Amino acid sequence: MEKKRHYKYKFIDLFAGIGGTRIAFEASGAECVFSSEWDKFCQLTYEKNFGERPSGDIRDIDASQIPNFDILTAGFSCQPFSIAGVSKERSLGRKHGFEDEKQGNLFFEIARIIKEKNPKAFLLENVKNLKSHDKGKTFEIISKILNDLGYDLNIKVIDARGYVPQHRERIFIVGFRKDLYPQNVFNFPDKLNNESRFRDILDDTVDHKYTLSDKLWAYLQEYKAKHQKKGNGFGFGLLDPDKDNITRTLSARYHKDGSEILIKQKGGSNPRRLTPRECARLMGYRDNFKITVSDTQAYRQFGNSLVVPLVTEIAENMIDFMDEYYMQKELSTVTIPHITINQKVFVSDKPSDGKPVYNS
């Protein structure tokens, strides 16, 4: 249910993906006035659920094309900064972080729009490793740029396991304009206990196509055994649906083999992977969210998404904070209209006829 606000805040949805951030902010009473997403399959999912197709690559969009807004939201590309992504790129001798010319410099597009549009606030989301990437230099650059643009920053790494049965750590950066919000006392949500259970997201009946083939299951077992001998934890994650469990992090590569989250099956069957709908639930999407792309694309989309109920709480806290300032400003500028009263003044307390006498 949409929360009533004293002011209708407007936001833009950059690097929109499939619209998880939009769901969160609209649930908090804000209005989306612009969205941008370059992936054509994400655009399809977004359009099916919100009735409009996002604009394309943010690098091709002039800030003058964007309507005025109060809050900028962006979950800019994670891969150049993720632990897995950095390890892979290093092993292949490829660039990562800001040196990744395709995705690593997209933060500067966000900074460009913030500079030109000067919004009241913003919410940025990325992988936990952003803070430690390149020995902290990457995050130092990001923080300095945002501070120089006139914003106080609130930064926190939050594990979504307090909202969904999944271990998923992400860094959130909330910024407020220093000139509008001088007292920076914003609080992130800190929910630790999750009421939803892993088995609650699972369907009772699942198509056999989600069961691993004998060949793939044998390969995953061999791979895990090999790495166990080396003393590391690489390998599949197998969960019992009859128990309460917290899953590993759902990733965009889940479509390849589903190895990070496999589910035991009865009757001697091989484990199965999650269905796209189960992945949606694991990310906090309700069942009325439309999935109209292939399984491969759906796995990528949910693996790249954010946890909707967590972001909803952040959005609510942001708008509560801004709304409080809005009300204080409104009260401080209220002028009480001058009322002229035609007072009649007593001349004598004790008139001769017993009735009070007035001057008019």
TrEMBL record:
One of its GO terms (molecular function) is DNA (cytosine-5-)-methyltransferase activity. CDD domains: Cyt_C5_DNA_methylase. InterPro entries: C5-MTase, C5_MeTfrase, C5_meth_CS, SAM-dependent_MTases_sf. Keywords: Methyltransferase, Restriction system, S-adenosyl-L-methionine, Transferase. Its EC number is 2.1.1.37. The active site is at C78. The keyword Glycosyltransferase does not apply. GO terms for biological process: DNA restriction-modification system; methylation. Pfam families: DNA_methylase. Belongs to the class I-like SAM-binding methyltransferase superfamily. C5-methyltransferase family. This is DNA (cytosine-5-)-methyltransferase. It comes from candidate division WWE3 bacterium CG_4_9_14_3_um_filter_34_6.
